[in-house]
């Protein structure tokens, strides 16, 4: 069954082409790659981390931040842990953020930085 899921695709690509680029992020004008193996390992580590915080299959996770690799890792980490992720952009109004987090019944909220 894992072979037919997005998590299975990440695992399969990490095994088939571990050093190939899965994600890129531009920081200070320089593109920083993340390999498939690094991506898989980060998703797995995130999933383990939220499980230790009590996240269970079927739980919801809200991610508040910018369009960054960390957002994708958190989203796929929630999926790998058997949950659902809800995205909330950092430029949403406070009322929107509250609505999305409350409506999604998020058990955990992941934020970009201290400001959030």
- Overall mean pLDDT: 92
The separation of the N and C termini measures 37 Å
String of helices and strands: HEEHEHEHE
> Residue ranges: pLDDT <50 for 5 or more in a row?
none
Number of strands: 5
- Percentage of residues in helical conformation: 40-55%
Oligomeric state as shown:
single chain
Cα radius of gyration in angstroms: 15 Å
Identify the strand order in the major beta sheet. 4-3-5
Summarize the main sheet. Answer: 3 strands, parallel
Q: Provide a count of the helices.
A: 4
Shape: globular
Secondary structure category: alpha/beta
Range of strand content: 25-35%
Key words describing this protein structure:
116 residues, alpha/beta, three-stranded parallel beta sheet, two-stranded antiparallel sheet, 4 helices, 27% strand
Question: Topology, pairings included?
Answer:
Elements: H1 6-16, E1 21-27, E2 30-35, H2 36-52, E3 60-65, H3 69-80, E4 84-89, H4 94-103, E5 106-111
Parallel strand pairs: 3-4, 3-5
Antiparallel strand pairs: 1-2
Model description:
The chain has four helices and five strands; from the N terminus they run αββαβαβαβ. It has about 120 residues and is an alpha/beta fold. Strands 4-3-5 form a three-stranded parallel sheet, sandwiched between helices. Helix 1 crosses helix 2 and helix 2 crosses helix 3 (about 70-80). The mean pLDDT is about 90.
């Amino acid at each position: 069954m894992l072979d037919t899921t997005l998590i299975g695709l990440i695992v399969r690509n990490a095994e088939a082409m571990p050093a190939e680029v899965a994600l890129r992020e531009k920081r200070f004008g320089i593109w920083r790659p993340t390999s498939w193996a690094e991506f898989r390992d980060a998703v797995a580590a995130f999933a383990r981390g939220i499980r230790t915080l009590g996240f269970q299959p079927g739980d919801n996770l809200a991610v508040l931040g910018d369009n960054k690799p960390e957002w994708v890792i958190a989203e796929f980490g929630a999926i790998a842990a058997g949950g659902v992720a809800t995205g909330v952009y950092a430029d949403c109004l406070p009322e929107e953020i509250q609505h999305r987090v409350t409506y999604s019944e998020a058990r955990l909220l992941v934020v970009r930085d201290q400001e959030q």
